[in-house]
Structures are given as C-alpha cells and as structure tokens.
Amino acid sequence: MEQVLSRPEASDAVSDAGWRFLLGTFRTSIPVGSLARAIGLAADAVAACGDDADGHLRVDARADRVVFTLQSLEHAAVTTLDVELALRISATADSSGFLTEPEIGTGAPRSVQMLEIAIDALDIAGIRPFWRAVLGYTGEAGAEGPKDPLVDPVEQGPAVWFQQMDEPRPQRNRIHFDICVPHDEAQRRVEAALEAGGRLVSATRAPAFWVLADQEGNEACVTTWQGRD
C-alpha cells in the first residue's frame, strides 16, 4: 500500500540512486547531448512508470539535460511508490548509458533545486486571495486553508508561502526568496553567496535554513529538508 514518507525516510530512500529530496519531491537531472535524446529518455521514463506516470512524474526536457521530478499529486508528498518509480527511472537511464545525477560539484551550472517566494504578512488570510488571483495559482492537494501555500497549477512557477509577522517591519524587505537545495549542496551555496558579497544574517536554524542578505539588506534563504522533523 502506498505510504507517505517522512523527510529522513524520503532522502535516505533515493540518495544513492542519484536523486535528492526537495520540498516534498524527488528530483534528478540527466545530462544529454541533444533534444532528440532528451525526448527519447523522457519517453523511456514514462514507459518505465507505466500507468503511474500521470499522477507522479513531471519532466523538463531540454537539449542539454532532462530534469525529472516525482511526487504523488494526490498526497502532495512523496510516497513509497515514488521511491519505486525513481529507482525504475534510474535503471532505465543506466541501461541507456545515462546517469541520474543531482549535479553537485560536477561542473554543472548548478545543482537540482527548487525556488519558493516567501511573503511576510500581518493578515495572511487577507492577502492570500490577492496573490492566488493575480498569479493564477491554486492550493496544493489537501492544503486549501487560509494560510496554506499557493502553487502554480501547471507547475512552471515557484511556490508562494506566507510568513506570519507580529508587527509591521517597514525597515526591511517583506518578500524574499527561499532556494531549496540538496542537503549536501547547501554549504557550498552559502559559501558562494558570501564570497559574492553577501552576508550571513542568521544560521540559528541551519541546516533547515540559512538567512543571507545582499549588501543592501535584501534577504534570501538557502534551505534544505534537514532539521525540520
């Protein structure tokens, strides 16, 4: 029977197969040499997933790489079935001479990652309908409450979530980016941001997240799944 996995269970189940657990999904990247090969590999992955592909698999196929994402659309989380599908895709890729890879420290442009936009608000329930309407977004499966995150229904844009404020903070930005990276990429990404002129605002919640800022105080968080259970 399909079961939703905890964060540690999810990460442990697929890391050795070249996948990483990011924001309730499994994600991997496979370098390819042409769009034709990318489409062919995507078709092979869909075939490997069979009837479960539509409810679990998303594919971004380009001339240089294919990025696969797995998540149960019914549960808005990864399950034991997603683990099985990840292993099937890895085996299919391997049989064709490709490697499932999180692209950490490989010389790739960047590792697999996911982006969220966080909005600080005093009245989350009051502003959430505006952002839902203006972005054309919706809630995740089973998460349509007045304070729940918003997601792109066609899964192209970043998720938007809302952070509760206790009092107005006009002295700092109230919208920031959360960049969710593999747990074994986070330190590299933080160091790169600091070397590029950023500063560390807080690491008290690391490895769940590090708060960074540019030279003008605009903030961004590097996040991982760790430290949240």
From TrEMBL:
A Pfam family matched in the record: Glyoxalase_6
InterPro entries cross-referenced by the UniProt entry: Glyas_Bleomycin-R_OHBP_Dase (IPR029068), Glyoxalase_6 (IPR041581)
Residue ranges of domain Glyoxalase-like in the record: 117-223
Protein name: 4a-hydroxytetrahydrobiopterin dehydratase
Organism: Kribbella kalugense
